Q: What sequence folds into this?
C-alpha cells in the first residue's frame, strides 16, 4: 500500500552521473543516510532515509544524454491503466510499465507540453515513508506554457481538479485530488511560452536561508535566492552536478497550502 492516496505525489528520485557525489552532498545537506541496493541489476540505486524512514532515491541516468534531474512520482493502484489514460489524453509513454524487482511497478510519461513525470504502483516499497517534515519532500509543482491544456490532461489521467487563484499579479493553480490539494502549477511567463514544461520537487527545511548557505558550502549553487512566496519562504538550488531542486520553509503541510 502507498503511504498516500492514488494520484498523489509519493516519491522522488534523482538521476545523476555521479552517484558518489550525490551520496555525499544530500546527506550533508538534509541529514540523510543512504542505503545502496545490493542487487547488481539495481545499478547502485540508493534509498535515502531521514530518521530511519525512506524519503528519496538516487540512481544513474537512463542514458548518456539525460541531464541530472529530480523526478516526481504519482501513486497509482494500476500503472498500466494510467498508461492507457496518458495515451488517450495526448501524452507520451516514455518508459512503459515495468516491475522494479519486487519493490513496485513504474512507468514514465510526458504530458502534451513535455513535462516528464512518473507513476509508482507499490509492492514491497510503498514510496516515501516521511513527507512534509524537514528533510522530506513537501511539495511538487508543474511549470507549464499551456496551463489550460495541463488542466484537461491531468484531470483525465488522475482525476485532479484545478483550483485557480490570482495573487501577487500572477495565476497559481492548486491540484485537488479528493479532499486535498496535492500539488501546484505555475504558467511560464515572459518568454512567449518558449520555456519547456517541467515538474519541480520541493524539500522541507526548518530554515531556508541557512540551508541555502549550507548548500553552497557543499558545492551547490543558488539558482533563485531565498524569498517569501504564497507557499512560504523558498529557494531553488542546483546540486554540484546541476540537478535543480527547491527548499520550502512553511508551517503548512501537504494539502494545507492555501495560495489565496
A:
Amino acid at each position: 500500500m502507498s503511504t498516500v492516496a492514488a494520484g498523489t505525489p509519493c516519491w522522488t528520485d534523482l538521476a545523476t552521473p555521479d552517484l558518489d557525489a550525490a551520496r555525499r552532498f544530500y546527506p550533508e545537506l538534509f541529514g540523510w543516510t543512504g542505503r545502496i541496493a545490493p542487487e547488481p541489476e539495481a545499478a547502485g540505486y540508493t534509498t535515502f532515509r531521514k530518521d530511519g524512514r525512506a524519503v528519496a532515491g538516487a540512481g544513474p541516468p537512463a542514458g548518456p544524454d539525460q541531464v541530472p534531474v529530480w523526478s516526481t512520482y504519482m501513486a497509482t493502484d494500476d500503472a498500466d491503466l494510467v498508461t492507457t489514460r496518458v495515451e488517450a489524453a495526448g501524452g507520451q509513454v516514455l518508459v512503459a510499465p515495468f516491475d522494479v524487482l519486487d519493490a513496485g511497478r513504474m512507468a514514465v510519461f510526458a504530458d502534451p507540453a513535455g513535462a516528464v513525470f512518473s507513476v509508482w504502483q507499490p509492492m514491497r516499497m510503498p514510496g516515501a515513508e516521511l513527507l512534509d517534515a524537514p528533510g522530506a519532500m513537501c511539495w511538487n509543482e508543474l511549470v507549464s506554457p499551456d496551463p489550460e491544456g495541463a488542466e484537461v490532461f491531468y484531470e483525465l489521467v488522475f482525476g485532479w481538479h484545478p483550483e485557480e487563484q490570482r495573487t501577487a499579479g500572477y495565476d497559481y493553480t492548486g491540484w485537488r485530488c479528493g479532499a486535498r490539494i496535492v500539488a501546484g502549477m505555475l504558467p511560464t511567463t515572459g518568454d512567449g511560452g518558449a520555456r519547456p514544461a517541467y515538474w519541480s520537487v520541493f524539500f522541507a527545511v526548518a530554515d531556508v536561508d541557512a540551508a541555502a548557505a549550507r548548500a553552497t558550502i557543499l558545492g551547490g549553487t543558488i539558482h533563485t535566492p531565498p524569498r517569501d512566496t504564497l507557499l512560504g519562504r523558498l529557494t531553488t538550488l542546483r546540486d554540484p552536478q546541476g540537478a535543480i531542486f527547491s527548499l520550502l520553509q512553511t508551517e503548512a503541510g501537504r494539502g494545507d497550502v492555501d495560495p489565496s
In short: The chain is about 15% helix and 45% strand. The chain has a mean pLDDT of 91.
